[in-house]
Amino acid sequence: VRVGTPARFALMAHNDGTTRSLWSAAGEISTLFGSETFPRRDDYVANGVAFEKVAADSPQGRQAFLDAMTEAWGWRGLVYTGSRDLIVHRLPLREVGAGVQEMLAWGFANALEQIQPGCCQDEARKVADTIAGWCQAYQTAHPDRTLSDLFQHVLPQLHTLLLGHAPAGTTVDGTASLLRLNPETADLPRFRFVHLFLDPATRGLAINAYNQAVAGSEIYTLDKFGAGALPFDVVLPTHGRGTLRVTPRVLFIETRQPVAIGLKTPITSVQELAAVLTRKFGPDVTLVGKAVSLVSMLAQEFIFVFNEEGSLYVRRTRQMNDALARQGVQLDMKPILRMRYHTWDALDGAATTLRPAPHLAAAFGQNVIPASEFAQNWQRVVAEQRAICKRIAAIRKPLAWLAYLQARQGAAIWDDLRGDYEAAKTTLMALRAQSARVQDDVNARYARLNALKIARQETQGAMGAHYRAASEWTPDALAQRETFRQTLARQDEDARALRDEIRLLKARRWDIERGAEAIQARETLRVVENKSELARLELVRNALLTIEGLLHTNHRPSAWWLPMLDGSGEWFRRIVDSTELYIEPLLS
Fold first, then answer.
1. How far apart are CA 93 and CA 83, in angstroms?
2. Is 385 helix (H, G, I), strand (E, B) or coil?
3. Which of 215, 225, 480, 485 lies at a 20 to 30 A Cα distance from 282?
4. Nearest to 48, CA basis, from 531, 392, 535
């Protein structure tokens, strides 16, 4: 993403407009109750909102309105704004450190606003200052260390903050080292899955299985990357990251400046691939599976631990693995360990008072909520918001919608607007009746005009027959012909008069339909409809943010929320005690 800012890194929101395809590799943060889920335009329409109509009438312009109304609440991504390609894990802190501090400050400040002052906001601020202090101290002491080093430094300290003591038997590593490929690591189980895409005996099966698994999704099939493309990226120390392509004569890495390595013999194993890459680039090359294949790579050796929403691609990974198994390919896939949290139910144990964001305060009907009360009522509130969305979607008529707003909000403005709307409708109906009467007069004259046209055709026909029948032009014959001419002239004059009357009547009808009174009435309808539709949109937005936000954060809370809201650790212990574990196989 490129944005017009002098800073090297910028905090950006996610929405269904200009940042719909945003991918933030450098970092992201969800403030308390915040998540990356955003209401899409389609979600509004499904709930009865005339989104495009309201957007078109917005004084800020359609695009700005779209971005604002579909923005994910409480989430920001740290996005590089420069032009050169960067590998995030290699970013020195002297370049990205200020952006990380800005990101933390934004998340912490918005979280503190949702904690009641005088209750525990001061304690929460100490936690925020502690975490920010870890990062600042590390950046100051190690400006040439990387972003990955910072994250690995902070994670154990966060675990200690949660547990109350240092965790035992854990190590922290980064993917860049975990998936480093060279002759010393090529035989590790984590690279067995890569071998399937290189071995001539299984390569075709593996490629077909991958392509079938991603078909119909937003993920590209391998043919879109070029000949010999495989579902892996190579990260080179000096060139960046690019798709791996292996052809019989050349190995390609599709970095911004593509790399091509000539081959004396085709690569048929992961060991041979490691040897070629190491000879060219040294031992610090990383091989990373693309979204669907990465899980299969690491599941050969490790057990993934995911929350319920972790990794949206697992279904397609399993489809790929199943397709390989049906072809007789032996796979040793460790299952995923899923963790089902009950985050907000467990908040019942926290002695905290919340002052939640406006959409949550509106949904709960309270600006200040004790944590225990929030825990006891959040599922009911989610159900109520779903019911509200269903009810809103069912109300289509403007007057019925205005009546609903009056009943729900009790604000006098909706009664006033309803009166204005009914008066404008009455005015337009009266004007429409006047216009219809004028149109009836127009139609009557068109009927007379049509009758005149038929009569004139008959006169012309009789005149022609008389002309053909006359053997000589006697005085009587000439008199008859003159009578025909006079009849035609009279018929033409009557037709001109009728056309003049029609033009006058149409002008009168236009004045009725487009006059000042009609214009004012239509403007009143437009204003009232737009105000009421904007209110509909705001109700739906609050409901969607509440429903999706609470469900999403219930499944995957941010760890730093826990000590910030509850320094006693009771909330954390309750989450631990209530977490359900289950196995998700990677082979059906």
1. 18
2. helix
3. 225
4. 392
Nearest to 112 by CA among 99, 98, 131: 131
Q: What's this model's pTM, rounded to 2 decimal places? A: 0.85
- Return the exposure string of 86-115: e unless at least 16 CB atoms fall within 10 Å of the residue's CB, then b: bbbbebebebbbebbebbbebbbebbbebb
Report in angstroms the alpha-carbon separations of 174 from 30, 31, 180, 287: 22, 25, 10, 13
What are phi and psi for residue 184, nearest 5 degrees?
-75, -25
* DSSP SS3 for 581: strand
Give the number of other Cβ atoms within 10 Å of residue 229's Cβ: 21
Containing 11, the helix (H) or strand (E) segment is: strand 9-12
Percentage helix, strand, coil, to 5, in the chain?
60, 10, 30
φ/ψ bin of 473: left (φ > 0), alpha (ψ from -120 to 50), beta (otherwise): beta
Phi, psi of 337, rounded to the nearest 5 degrees: -95, 115
Residue 146 φ/ψ region, left for φ over 0, alpha for ψ in the -120 to 50 degree band, beta for the rest? beta
Token pair belonging to 513: 């339909």
Average pLDDT for the chain: 93
Which residues touch 315 (CB under 8 Å, ≥6 apart)? Answer: none
Token pair of 473 as six digits: 């032009």
Which of these, 341, 334, 342, lies nearest to 317 by C-alpha position? Answer: 334
Beta bridge partner(s), residue 339? 307, 581
Mean pLDDT of 307-314: 86
The answer to whether 439 touches 509, Cβ cutoff 8 Å, is: yes
| Closest C-alpha among 214, 219, 254, 262 to residue 234 | 254
Alpha carbon distance 541, 528 (integer Å): 20
Count H helices and E strands in the chain, helices first.
21, 13
Characterize the bridge pairing of strands 305-307 and 286-289: unpaired
Sign of the Cα torsion 247, 249, 251, 255 reads negative
Q: In angstroms, what CA-CA distances link 29 with 24, 72, 88, 315, 553?
A: 10, 12, 16, 26, 13
245 and 225 Cβ atoms separated by less than 8 Å? yes
- What residue has token string 């760890």? 559
Specify the 3-state DSSP secondary structure of 18. coil
Q: Which 3 state secondary structure label does DSSP give 556? A: coil
Given phi > 0 = left and psi -120 to 50 = alpha, else beta, which region is 365? left
Describe the strand order of the beta sheet including 336-340 as a list of residue ranges.
Answer: 305-307, 336-340, 580-584
What is the structure's pLDDT at 84? 61
Q: List Cα–Cα distances, 282 to 236, 257, 274, in angstroms.
A: 9, 19, 10
